[in-house]
C-alpha cells in the first residue's frame, strides 16, 4: 500500500524526458554512471543494468567534448531519460542539449559570464530541458564559504538560491535543486531550510556517503528523515561501488516509508538455536536471483517451522526450515513440504508464478 507522506509539501512539477518529477508524481529513483562517458559500450551496458534494477533517470559526467559527442549515441541506445553533468564549460552544455539530453546538471555560477549563461538557458528553454542546480559542500563559492566559515546548511542554501536566481533572471524556471553535504545532519537541515524558501522540486542525496554499508546507512537516515517530512521529489543513494547496488537501497528506503513498491522484499529471520536450514545462503540467493523483478512481492526465508510461518504472516510466499525438509508457505499458511535440497528451486518457481516475470539465473 502506498501512503502519503507526513506533512507532504507540493512542489512544481517538471519533466525530465517522459518522467515527471515533483507535484503529485511518485518519488523518482536516479543514479549516475561511473564509466568513462566516452566509452559508449561500457556506459550503455551500465545504464541498461541500472535500468533493470529500477533506475528511472540516469546522469552521466561530461568532462570534455569527446564525452559530449558520445551523448547522442548513448541517448539513442537507452530508454530512460539522460542527464548531462556539466561543470565550467558552457560549450559542453550546448553540445549536450544539441545531442538530445533530457536534463542538465550545472551551476550557472560556474559556467562563465551572463552571455554564456543566456545561450545555455535559451537552448534549454527551446527544448524544454530542465536544469538541476546542484550545490555540493565540497565546491561552495569562496565568498560564501568565507562568510559562513564552513559549508554550513545556511551557506549551502545561499549558494543554491544564488544559482537559482541567475536562471530565474533569464526567465528560466524548469529547475530542480540539490544541496548535498557529506554530513547527514547538515544535509537534513539544509534541505529543510531550502524547502521553506522554494517550491522547485528537490533532488535528495547525501554526497560522498562512503562504501556500501556506510553509504546505505547515511542515505537511509538522511533521505529517510526528509522524505518522512514530505521533502524530496527524486533521490539518489550515493555509494562508492557499482551504482547498480544503489537501487535496492533506494527502493528499500522508499518501501520502508510506504512511498514506492517495487520488486521482491526478502524477509529473513535472524536465525537462532532452532534454525534448521541455511537461512543466510537462501536469503542471499533469493535476493540475487530476483533483483530485476518489478512486481512487488514479499518473500520470507525463516529458519524453523515453529515460529517461521507465523512470524512471516505478511509475506506472500516463503520457506521455513523443518527436520530434514523444508516447507513452502503462503500468507503464513503451510502449503507443502519439500526436500531441503529442492527448497531454493521450489521457491523460485513460486515467485515466478506469482510475478509472471522470468528470474535471472
Ligand atoms: Fe529462530 Fe525460527 Fe525465529 Fe528463525 S524463525 S529466529 S529459526 S525461532
From TrEMBL:
Gene3D superfamilies: Dihydropteroate synthase-like, Sulfite Reductase Hemoprotein, domain 1. Residues 265-353 form the IspG C-terminal domain. It catalyses: (2E)-4-hydroxy-3-methylbut-2-enyl diphosphate + oxidized [flavodoxin] + H2O + 2 H(+) = 2-C-methyl-D-erythritol 2,4-cyclic diphosphate + reduced [flavodoxin]. Its EC number is 1.17.7.3. Pathway: Isoprenoid biosynthesis; isopentenyl diphosphate biosynthesis via DXP pathway; isopentenyl diphosphate from 1-deoxy-D-xylulose 5-phosphate: step 5/6. Belongs to the IspG family. This is 4-hydroxy-3-methylbut-2-en-1-yl diphosphate synthase (flavodoxin). It comes from Thermodesulforhabdus norvegica. The gene is ispG.
